[in-house]
Design goal:
Helix 3 packs across helix 6 (about 125-140). About 55% of the residues lie in helices and about 0% in strands. It is built from 10 helices and 2 strands, in the order E-E-H-H-H-H-H-H-H-H-H-H. A two-stranded antiparallel sheet has the order 1-2. It has helices at about 15-30, 30-50, 60-65, 85-95, 100-115, 125-140, 150-160, 165-175, 190-195, 205-210, and strands spanning about 5-10, 10. The radius of gyration is 18 Å and the shape is globular.
Length: about 220
């Protein structure tokens, strides 16, 4: 018999076969850091969705939140692709395996693929916008006061974040340093510039000026 999911501020993880399978998979295959962070992303994203008056599918938001950092795992570090894409592909494989319609699969794939690309997800479908909103809340503190202190405390009691800033930055570094070329044009270049000795950020202007075009 499955254990009932907690409810915080009227929001709980969907009691569905897919959500339960996602929980079990991510709990078994990722670190405590990624698991607890991903669960917080669901709750914070869902709360921000209510704050913004958005209607969203909780199951799709949950799968997007749970898989969004899967691509940081050791198995993907030599893929040569952005970790976001690796995670999105894993979520797509998972959802298709459960017979989820392609439009829903597309939403989750997009939510994960774009969750480190600010300025775009907020204008897309609610599930896409809210995975990013949950990540931005938990990692960057964006909109920190939009959620009450009591609700924030309850979520972090359920899913603690000890020394989270240091640990998530280490996880980013370890997950991306083997594929530094994937940081071009995205925020993870900041991580490697700070923490990966010898990393040199590729410059957009240099790429243009050094392209094979004569002028």
């Amino acid at each position: 018999m499955s254990t009932a999911e907690p409810t915080v501020a009227g929001l709980s993880v969907p009691d569905t076969r897919i959500a339960r399978a996602a929980t079990e998979l991510i709990r078994d295959t990722t670190s405590d850091l990624v698991y607890h962070h991903s669960r917080r992303v669901f709750w914070f994203g869902g709360m921000q969705g209510r704050n913004r008056g958005l209607s969203f599918d909780p199951e799709l938001l949950y799968v997007g939140a749970m898989f969004h950092d899967v691509g940081l795992g050791e198995a993907f570090r030599t893929s040569g692709r952005r970790f976001e894409v690796d995670g999105a592909d894993e979520a797509r494989r998972f959802l298709r395996g459960h017979g989820v319609p392609e439009d829903s699969v597309r939403r989750v794939w997009t939510a994960i693929a774009l969750h480190t690309t600010p300025g775009i997800p907020e204008f897309m479908e609610p599930e896409v916008a809210l995975v990013t909103a949950g990540v931005e809340y938990d990692v960057l503190g964006i909109g920190y006061d939009d959620i009450s202190e009591a609700d924030r405390a309850e979520i972090t009691r359920l899913h603690p974040r000890p020394d989270f800033k240091k640990n998530i930055l280490r996880a980013f570094t370890e997950g991306i340093a083997p594929r530094p070329e994937t940081t071009f044009g995205n925020v993870k270049a900041d991580v490697l510039e700070r923490f990966s000795p010898g990393y040199r950020r590729e410059n957009f202007v240099d790429v243009i000026e050094n392209s094979p075009w004569p002028q």
